[in-house]
Design a protein that fits this description.
10-stranded antiparallel β-sheet; 26 strands
Length: 682
């Protein structure tokens, strides 16, 4: 069965998504021999490989110019650089990304960069807008996590390079800008060190955040800034290492896009970072990867490099990331304070009436300088607020309808040498999403498997969230999609909205699509078989089994632009279990064992009992705990990290990481950043 595009989505968007997905898969297959599933070469060799490839690329953009400078190989493509200068002068969105890369170029004392072009870079950086309180009516996005550190980094380094210059946009000196950015950076790092990231494990935005931190570690003259940036980079690389499968960041993501998920380990930006750092993944470019390759002051800790290559028979990582606005006092934050506001904002700014009203009291003071917020964010907030008030007037419960919320999350990753399964446990069940990715099974760089309820547009590709519970290699995802939209107005779209500067649809415009999808690209697996409610797939020595309570049908192009299963119905339960030849025997024997396992469904409670081979009876429902043979398995209140390499309490800011005789201590309270190696370790 082929499922047509949703009526609410223009057909050209669906077609474009399909074309992109097809191109991405084809490109991935062409690059098959370049992907490293086993550790490859040493750091210095990989560094040269990355820089050489970037410098030779005709499509490398600014990162290619950075690579040329690192290799002292010209000529630079001045057209690319001037195009970036024009983008910054126009104050286009993501101009902060370019500003950080231009600062890398400017910092190189090389004759390859002409004095004329150096002066043009200087002039552009001096007149740029660096924060929300500076003059300017523009569509810059400055508030999300990756943009915050991007703007602060660009401001600090520009102020450091030109301390006596007056920045014409706000009339302040470079020294003033450096001091203002310094305070914000230290506070930003302090909070991320304690609670992790709101854009948790984002294969789209971790590279952006890391690019800024790498620039600070490399160029900041302030020793405290440079060292704390390096400390946080080690935490992020550790995070990536414990949530990846052989170089593929196959985990739940706070923010991502269909291209980065479906492209998998061959094309996501984090894969090239992993390839450079520890030799697993896909060699490639990108600002962060080139920044790491070209840098001289920071290198990923050897302890992390070693554990990233470790593939034990069983590995479990539990972690907690992000925070709630209601957590503010625990971390010395105040949502009503202009600077603290942005550190808390993504922790549920539209989750309650109180949060919306408190946020407006802050953002209204920047009405004239924070134009994009008024165009993109506030129209959606107004619609959510009106919806909440209407529900309250009708005496009805007020659910969490904040599509953009990236609040506190508890995650689990289970990994073997042949597969990985990862999910955000019981995360905001039934709430609307936008770019969050809740769970994924990974058996190779090309083969992500996951389920979703489709969202209203290609940008807001997630619909209503499931209630997920995972124990080891089994995951249960329960969907309960409402039949009626909540009351309230539509989002009022301002006349200057458009493209990526468009507000989200209101709760009353939610499509509430009455179906769920399972992404499973049959052509990329070695075997695929079906038996009643079960679908089985094999890739090399790894096995995947999917069970759907609702009947499923294959669609060649209707599941995020490609192949997968479609299950109609507003309520559904999916089971995913993974297996491997080394433990479970042949694929045929394993599928028969899974198929024969009893599954009991309680429609009234929307609950299920599954006697999972190898694990026992797993019980889970829309309400209540996840039980394994009757014993509850915790889904919340995880540590910041809890795995064989590191146990770090949430909120502590201290990480004691050990593996194979190596030990790395990162303590943001004391500033300690120390790595030791036992005499017995080669």
């Amino acid at each position: 069965m082929s499922v047509p595009c949703l009526a609410s989505i223009p057909r050209w968007i669906c077609r474009a998504a399909f074309v992109f997905a097809t191109w991405s898969v084809a490109a991935s297959l062409r690059a098959a021999d370049r992907y490293a599933s086993e550790p490859r070469a040493d750091f210095d060799s990989r560094r040269v490989e990355i820089l050489e490839a970037a410098a030779a690329s005709s499509q490398g953009g600014l990162s290619a110019q950075v690579a040329k400078l690192a290799l002292n190989r010209g000529p630079l493509d001045e057209t690319v650089i001037r195009r970036s200068l024009a983008k910054i002068d126009r104050r286009d969105d993501t101009a902060d990304f370019d500003a950080v890369s231009l600062l890398r170029l400017y910092r190189h004392e090389s004759s390859l960069l002409s004095s004329e072009l150096r002066q043009e870079i200087r002039a552009t950086l001096l007149r740029f807008k660096y924060w929300v309180d500076e003059p300017g009516t523009d569509l810059l996005s400055m508030w999300s996590e990756n943009h915050q550190i991007g703007y602060h980094t660009a401001e600090l380094l520009t102020g450091q390079f030109f301390p006596a210059e007056i920045f014409p946009n706000n009339g302040k000196s470079g020294a003033w800008h450096r001091a203002a950015a310094r305070a914000r950076i230290l506070r930003w790092i302090e909070i991320k060190a304690k609670v992790g990231f709101s854009e948790w494990d984002s294969n789209s935005y971790y590279p952006v955040t890391m690019s800024a931190l790498l620039a600070l570690a490399e160029y900041a003259a302030d020793r405290d800034i440079a060292s704390r940036a390096a400390m946080l980079l080690d935490v992020m690389f550790f995070d990536m290492a414990v949530d990846s499968f052989r170089g593929t960041y196959g985990t739940s993501h706070g923010r991502c896009y269909t291209g980065t998920v479906l492209g998998g380990g061959r094309s996501e930006g984090t894969s090239s970072l992993q390839y450079l750092a520890w030799g697993l993944g896909s060699p490639g470019g990108g600002d962060a990867t080139i920044g790491l390759a070209a840098g001289k002051r920071y290198r990923v800790a050897r302890t992390i490099e070693a554990l990233a290559r470790d593939l034990p028979e069983e590995f479990v990582n539990r972690e907690r990331q992000s925070l709630l606005i209601e957590d503010a006092k625990k971390f010395g934050l105040d949502y009503t304070h202009p600077d603290d506001f942005w550190l808390l904002n993504e922790g549920g700014k539209f989750r309650t009436i109180e949060n919306i009203e408190a946020g407006y009291r802050i953002t209204d003071r920047w009405r004239d300088t924070l134009h994009r917020y008024g165009v993109v964010i506030k129209p959606y907030g107004d619609a959510v607020l009106a919806t909440y008030r209407e529900l309250a007037a009708q005496g009805k419960p007020i659910p969490d309808l904040d599509r953009t919320s990236l609040q506190r999350v508890d995650k689990i990753t289970y990994r073997t040498p042949d597969y990985q399964l990862s999910t955000a446990q019981d995360y905001r069940k039934g709430a609307p999403g936008f770019q969050q990715h809740i769970w994924q099974a990974t058996v190779g760089p090309d083969t992500p498997v996951f389920t979703i309820n489709p969202g209203p547009t290609s940008k807001y590709w997630q619909g209503r969230f499931p209630r997920n519970g995972q124990f080891k290699n089994v995951l249960i995802a329960i969907y309960h999609i409402p039949a009626e939209q909540p009351p309230g107005p539509k989002t009022i779209v301002p006349p200057d909205a458009g493209g990526n500067a468009s507000p989200s649809p209101s709760p009353s415009e939610d499509t509430l699509v009455p179906r769920t999808y399972a992404v499973l690209r049959r052509a990329l697996f070695d075997e695929v078989a079906q038996k009643f409610n079960w679908t089985f797939a094999r890739k090399d020595r790894a096995y995947v089994a999917l069970w759907s309570k609702q009947p499923t049908a294959w669609s060649e192009h209707g599941v995020i632009g490609g192949d997968g299963l479609v299950a109609e119905g507003r309520q559904n339960i999916w089971i995913c279990q993974l297996g491997r030849e080394a433990i479970d025997g042949s694929f045929a024997a394993w599928t028969e064992k899974i198929f024969s396992a009893p599954v009991a469904f309680d429609a009234a409670a929307l609950a299920i009992d599954y006697r999972a081979p190898g694990l026992g009876k797993i019980s889970f429902g829309w309400d209540g705990p996840l039980r394994i043979d009757g014993h509850p398995e915790p889904l919340t209140d995880y540590a910041r990290f809890d795995n064989p390499y590191c146990i770090s309490p949430y909120g502590s800011g201290r990480y004691d990481i050990a593996h194979a005789g190596r030990r790395l201590v990162i303590d943001f309270k004391t500033g300690e950043h120390r790595e030791t190696l036992s005499a017995a370790t080669p």
